[in-house]
């Protein structure tokens, strides 16, 4: 989806159209930008940028508080459209996913024809634009989908993979961030085509297993299958506080809210979990996570909270000020099965 | 110091010590037992700092002294050697000679000063409990004690003294077991939380007669014959348990205990490790127990029962049911039920206890 959060708001509120819109916390607090419209991006505003910094770049920026339940509902609608094309749909985030069209080419004529149809239906039914990449595997499809954003369609047939990849900066490859980019630059590589000068062993000796992946990516190879659903590994909630927390009781009250949120989300998704994790970021930004594994899976807010509180007490929270708290549950077990508690509130 | 002691008698006292010492500990002395003479008594002690056990052996003693020896290795040696008698000689402060049959050992130990001082529990407010009765009562409820460390106040059982009765209650928040029996010399006193490990160790004790219970501010003592088990009182508030024993469960089902227990265990074979639930479907005169697991398959078994409460379906953790049925010794068992969201109550039919029940909270399936 193109600029998904912002696009949803701009669709529903015509007065926002054409304006630099961002979704995120207010610039007075410690909020960050979750999404920025293309108009806002023109000012150099990017997602994950602190709101305070964003407003300095663009005075007329329109701030909108995020409404994640609305995005989730919209996302479900869009994925419902995608599933009409193939049941093999793998969502990778709220606004991004892969479709394996291998078994459904006859039905739609070609993957390219299907891509056109997807774009048309999403536009007509949801009034949102989507960028689609068509390629022989996930790697190429992903890079192609980013190639012509917003509202683009890029098709890379198998025999044109190299021609497509070679002139692109290495940064376009999944997993290549600033660190790898710098290391590659040191060996004279800035474009994907230049990466192909190195043998598999050379890359492996420099980058380990990651080097092998780079070697294959540079050749447009990617064996990862499209899986129907990404199984969720954990459910968590965290919050950064406007002013640091210094009292342990205050922190426990916040943990209770977070544990409650996690329990509610687990209920909604019909999962229980065995491992509870607490995340604590102290005022100096050092962050620690501590976990506790239960004997049986649970989604009871009070059980989660009891364990979270124990973990918090074992930390230095209280002695040290805390700027962020998080509660998460992993080791998830699907199913509506849930052990009810004997005592109130469980 | 030299001690001559009957080997099988000695082994009988060493056995219960093994449960007390810590298997893995960062404090070496806690994996040791203390052997010491005091006048004509040969004393033994073990502790993990929360639960301690002291006892003594009849022995021929000459000289004073003591040493702490590695508990498991020492027991292995005493068990392995031949002969009716074992001779222990303190070679020096940290070395003990063991002689039995044709064997001679010299083992390294720790100085008795390194061994922790055990808490003392004053003995003015004592209660006598027939040991066989206490042991039986613990066996009725111990399965319900929580092993979830984060719920520390449930990591033990509540020992409650009523006027003329003793009550023991355990719960892990999902199920609760309560047993009560008459106790002649008891008068009402505040209940006290006994940690799980102390209950387990008491279960290992043997013998008849009365166990003497006493308490101080932070510790409890259970004395039976030579043995004295001392444990730290578990701090915390035990939940208001009478409130969860529902009084308006209007449906009753009566089963042959063994038949039900076996059927539940068979069906439970097809429940996963992580989400254990069987479905109980009651209809007049019978119960269908079933389990379905997407990975494994399905199982179903029908059990006859006395029941006329109409259709009722309820999900339950089969382990909770099995453990209760195993703790019972009656031929028949009765369950009182209401609906799929209300706790069911299991009761023995014609049991020997004054009051015994197990409350099990259902699972939503």
Give an overview in words.
The complex is a heterodimer of chains A (346) and B (365). Chain A has 346 residues and is an alpha+beta fold. Chain A has four domains: 4-66, MutS, DNA mismatch repair protein, domain I (3-Layer(aba) Sandwich); 69-159, Alpha-Beta Plaits (2-Layer Sandwich), CATH 3.30.70; 166-218, Orthogonal Bundle (DNA polymerase, domain 1), CATH 1.10.150; 234-334, 2-Layer Sandwich (Dna Ligase, domain 1), CATH 3.30.1490. Helices cover 39% and strands 22% of the residues of chain A. Chain A is built from 14 helices and twelve strands. Chain A has helices at residues 4-12, 38-41, 51-57, 68-82, 105-108, 111-126, 138-147, 161-165, 178-186, 192-195, 200-207, 209-218, 248-269, 301-313; strands at residues 21-24, 33-36, 62-64, 89-93, 96-99, 132-134, 153-155, 234-245, 271-282, 287-298, 322-334, 338-339. In chain A, the strands form four sheets. Chain A has a four-stranded antiparallel sheet. In chain A, strand 4 and strand 5 form a beta hairpin. In chain A, helix 11 (200-207) crosses helix 12 and helix 13 runs antiparallel to helix 14. Chain B has helices at 7-20, 71-80, 131-141, 196-204, 257-268, 318-327, and strands spanning 2-6, 32-38, 41-47, 51-57, 59-62, 66-70, 85-92, 95-100, 103-110, 127-130, 156-162, 165-171, 175-182, 189-195, 210-215, 219-224, 227-232, 251-256, 278-283, 286-293, 297-304, 306-307, 312-316, 332-337, 344-348, 355-360, 363-364. In chain B, a hairpin with a 3-residue loop joins strand 3 (41-47) and strand 4 (51-57). The model of chain B has no long low-confidence stretch (mean pLDDT 92). Chain A binds chain B through residues 272, 274, 292, 294-297, 303, 306-307, 310, 333, 335-343, 346, and chain B through 147-151, 171, 173-176, 239-240, 244, 272, 274-277, 315, 317, 341, 343, 359, 361-365. Strand 12 (338-339) of chain A pairs antiparallel with strand 27 (363-364) of chain B, so a sheet runs across the interface.
